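Below sits our specimen:

——
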Amino acid sequence: MVPGNRAITEARLPVKAKGNQPQRETRHELQSTYATVLTAAVASAPAVWAQESVSRDPAGPYISGSYGGYKSHGGEFEDENDLLGVALGYQFTPFFALEAEYIDFGNFGEDDVDAKLKGAGLSAIGRLPVTDSFGVYGKAGAFVSAMDVDAFDESETYDEVSPFVGAGVDFRVTPQLTAFAEYNRYNVDVDEDDFNGQVTNDGPEFDTGRVGLKYQF
């Protein structure tokens, strides 16, 4: 009876081993399939991104709005305040754009000097795309300003055109919407012979920093 049981046990062992073999093969096939799909997805991603980049038209008009702050330098004009800007531009290529902008600097000055500045800038922008969504740029142009100065019981208005320069970074949030941050430097001249010579410099300079959103049509 023992030899019979032993024979039955030996006969069952191969059946159990054969029963596990399909499970191991199925698991191996699933792992291989998953690895193949993952590899294909990673390999095809650059092609998908490239297709999106090609289908997106980089040229067209845009509008933007920005908010930031500035610090004015120059004797009695030393101060800091907020500024607002709105712009209209045209992006010719991913590398070049032209822009017209209006900026309101509000009031600034100290002690017996109160000045108010606003103006319009026209600039050329050169941009270097770092990725499909991120870029750095520089800008240079002319700033047409109107500055009203009340100082030492006198009032003067200065209208002039002066150069300005700037630099910034931008990030494309959607195909139409771009966020940006930039720095610009402006200056406005004042006649030192005005105000009975009590203004001790030839006009303020402005270091500005701001962030904004640009919408391209």
The longest helix spans residues 2-55.
